[in-house]
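HUMAN: Ready with one sample?

ASSISTANT:
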Amino acid sequence: MAWTWRFEKADGTEAEPAVQPEEFPTQGDAESWIGETWRELLEGGVEQVTLLEDGTKVYGPMSLSAAQEG
């Protein structure tokens, strides 16, 4: 299984991430990575992310701006 993130603008169109993503072996690894890099992604133009497992949507879109407010 491979866990990946899809990076999007607020309107749902794909965005090029400022930080190069990778495939993760577990959901926890993917979530830890997004927790460490969300600020850089947001500054680079990514406004929301969706988590995928082998190409299937698990959850999202999740706003990165909301993380900044919290």
Q: What stands out?
A: The mean pLDDT is 93. Residues 7 and 49 are 5 Å apart (CA to CA).
